[in-house]
Each structure stands twice: as structure tokens, then as C-alpha cells.
Amino acid sequence: MTPGASELAEVLAALETVLRARRGADPKRSYTAGLYAAGPDAILKKIGEEAAEVLLAAKNPDRAQLVHELADLWFHTLVLMAAYDVPLSALGAELARRMGRSGLDEKAARGQA
Amino acid sequence: MTPGASELAEVLAALETVLRARRGADPKRSYTAGLYAAGPDAILKKIGEEAAEVLLAAKNPDRAQLVHELADLWFHTLVLMAAYDVPLSALGAELARRMGRSGLDEKAARGQA
Amino acid sequence: MTPGASELAEVLAALETVLRARRGADPKRSYTAGLYAAGPDAILKKIGEEAAEVLLAAKNPDRAQLVHELADLWFHTLVLMAAYDVPLSALGAELARRMGRSGLDEKAARGQA
Amino acid sequence: MTPGASELAEVLAALETVLRARRGADPKRSYTAGLYAAGPDAILKKIGEEAAEVLLAAKNPDRAQLVHELADLWFHTLVLMAAYDVPLSALGAELARRMGRSGLDEKAARGQA
After folding, report:
1. Could B108 and A32 be called an inter-chain contact, meaning their C-beta atoms sit closer than 8 Å?
2. Is CB count within 10 Å lower at the N or C end of chain D?
3. pLDDT of A60 strictly over 80
4. D77 and C73: CB-CB below 8 Å?
5. pLDDT tens digit sequence for D15-60
């Protein structure tokens, strides 16, 4: 694994662990626990919101802000995955499925139809 | 570290390499090269679209479809990152910044304001 | 009614009538009938897509394109309303509820919480 | 013409007048004036957010909530139109352009490409 991938693996693993632990936590003490307590729609609203913010940030010149919004979007999809018991391995397997030269584009193109 | 996180990080790193290579490729031969050729707005539209599909899939009972849509969303954010020269390591660093017990929620809460 | 409002009333009324009639039409002969046949998620995906296109168009200099995307967004919400049997009068009543100096902002602010 | 369409068009016209007047108002005294002061991105974020809420509401059984979210979405597109000096009549004209049996679907289909 490249050093970059290894660092990313560590933060994704840590986030998965922390987020799953937050599911039962006191909603008053933590933003994430508050989202879990509010229910899936609250998490999904945040995903819609963060996606909109990625679009806007990408149209603005501040690249640090774009990274910030992309991290917010990934973060809230990880919150959703914890809420729905979707493991990181399922996302990895699905992305791996569409890897490989032809595979990558074939799958993506089919999703386009 | 969970094997799932390593596997996911590795496929993300591999996708980063492939997607960056596609930026100069013939748009007729590849879905992703076509997106790059169409310009940032085409990529951003896909992100908006895939975010909407994540919301809908999360409200439907088919969990495999949800994983599929989450992978589509992550895939198109990777396409955007390649287009804008945002390395995966920048996103990893940003996610790491908001990790840690209090850090996680503090940052997220600030993003809420 | 001002001439502008009267023209708008006519087109909204005509759209409501046409869209409701399309609900049972042959999906192969009409885009809208195709959406109804594909089911609510197909309509909702279009709303997500068109909202993203409004955001992008608003960040671009072409104002005619923005009007085009706004019309697409309204159009697909009207398709949704026909699909769900929500009459124009319900939308008018809800918007009227939040009219008036204080009413306007009070309602909107509450939606913000 | 249905009474619903007239009522809706009238409230849209009244909102247009009120919203245009709010553009120069004290941002502390009014939610809408606050949005104008915060700039176009703040309005666009709200459109992204409200579109997501329409999707979620449409997937939930509460129809009154759907009407509420649709009104929120239309309201914020009116705020955007006031901010960008897009008159309601321009949107009416654009919607009228795609009316008529074939016109309706032809235009929509082209927007699909």
C-alpha cells in the first residue's frame, strides 16, 4: 500500500469505529450522536446539503474550501453507512468491481442509462 | 485496522491513479474521459445526481442498491478530485483533522453553523 | 391580477391539466408519460438533477440558461405534484400562508432550525 | 382556468414584489434579507437543501409535509430569481414555450440529453 493509501485506511477505519460507537451515545453530547438520534432523514438531509456545497465550492476559486466540503460529504456518507450497518468493505468491494480498464467505464456507463 | 478500511483505501488509491490517467484520454473511448472532456459542470451534475440517488436508495429497502449508489457518489467525487488536482491524501488529511473524540464533533458542528 | 401573473396562471393551469392527463398515457409516446410509468423515483431523480443544474447555472454567467434550468425544476415539481395528486391550490395556499411581512420570515426562519 | 392556478400565480406575483423589496432591507430584521446579505451561495445552498427535503418528503407518507417542502423549494427559487433579477414573467414564458402537446415533451426530452 502507498503511504497515502495507508494513512487514508487508518482514518477511514478510525471513523468507522467512532461512528458506530456514537450510534448509542447521548445525542446532547455529540453532533453525530444527535444525527443518529434524529433519524435517517436528518443524515440524508445533510448528504443533500453537503453535495450542494461541493457543487458550489467547486465553482468558487477557494480549493481548500472544496476539500473541506468533499470531506464533509464523505463524512456524512460514512455516518449513513454506520446508521445502516453498511461496512466499509462493502463500499470497497463495489468500487473494486468497477475498477480495471474496461470495467471502470462499462459499469459507469451502464449507471448512466 | 479493519481489513475493510485497507481494501477501500487501496481501491481508492488505484482509482485515483486510473482517473488521473484518463484526463487526457480519448473522450469517445471512455465514460470518464468523456466526463473530463465535457468539463467540470458535467462532473458536478453527476455528483448532484448521484447524491439524489443515494437519498432515494436509502429510503428504499434494497440495501445492495444503496451500496451501489454510494459507490457511484464516491466514484464521481474521485473524478472531480482528479479533474481539480485534489489528491486523495488531502481528503485523508482533512478527515483526520476532524477525528478524535471531541475533534470529530466539534468540526462537524462548526460546519453546521 | 397583473398581466404577468395572469399569463403565469394560464401556463400553470395548462401544465396541471396536461400533466394529469399524461399519467395514463403511453410511456413510449411522451417523455412525461415515460416518467410516470417509471415511477416516483424517476421523477424525484429528475428533481435532484434539475436542482443541481440550477445551482450550476446560477454560478455561470449565462442568465438564459438559469431561466431554462429554473423552468426545468418547476416543471418536474409539477410532474411530481400530478403524480401525487397535489393540486396547484395546495401549493398556492401553503405559499400564501407564509406571505405578509412577518409571516414570510417567521415561517421561513422556522424551516431553518 | 382552474381557481388553483390563479391563486398560485397571484401569490407568486405578490411574493415577487415582497422579495424584491427585501433585497435592500436590514439583514438582522428578516430571514430573506439575511439571505440576500449572505450572498447568492447562501440562497443556492437553501435550494439544494430544500430539493433534498422534497425528495425525502415524497418518500415519506405525510403529504402535508411534501406540500410544505415543495413550497419551501419554490419560495427559495423565487428568492434566487429576485437576487438575479429574473422576473416571474421570464419563467412563465419559458414554461409556456414547452407547453402544447408535442412541445411539452420535445423540450423536456431535449433537456434530458
Report:
1. yes
2. C
3. yes
4. yes
5. 999 999 999 899 998 899 999 999 999 999 999 999 999 999 999 9
The three-state (H, E, C) secondary structure of D18-42, written as one string? HHHHHCCCCCCCCHHHHHHHHCHHH
C-chain CB neighbours of D99 within 8 Å are 11, 14-15, 18
Number of H helices, E strands in chain D: 6, 0
Place B2 in a pLDDT band, splitting at 50, 70 and 90: confident
Amino acid at D84: Y
- The secondary structure of C24-92 as a DSSP string is TS-TTT-HHHHHHHH-HHHHHHHHHHHHHHHHHHHHSS-HHHHHHHHHHHHHHHHHHHHHTT--HHHHH
Cα end-to-end distance, chain C, whole Å: 35
* Interface ipTM: 0.89
Distance of CA C109 to the CA centre of its chain: 22
- Torsion on CA atoms B35, B41, B45, B46, rounded to nearest 10: 20
Task: Check CB contact under 8 Å for C66 and D86.
Answer: yes
When scoring C45, C47, C60, C62 by the number of chain B Cβ atoms within 10 A, the one with the most, hence best to mutate, is C45
For chain D, the 3-state helix, strand and coil shares in percent, each to the nearest 5, are 80, 0, 20
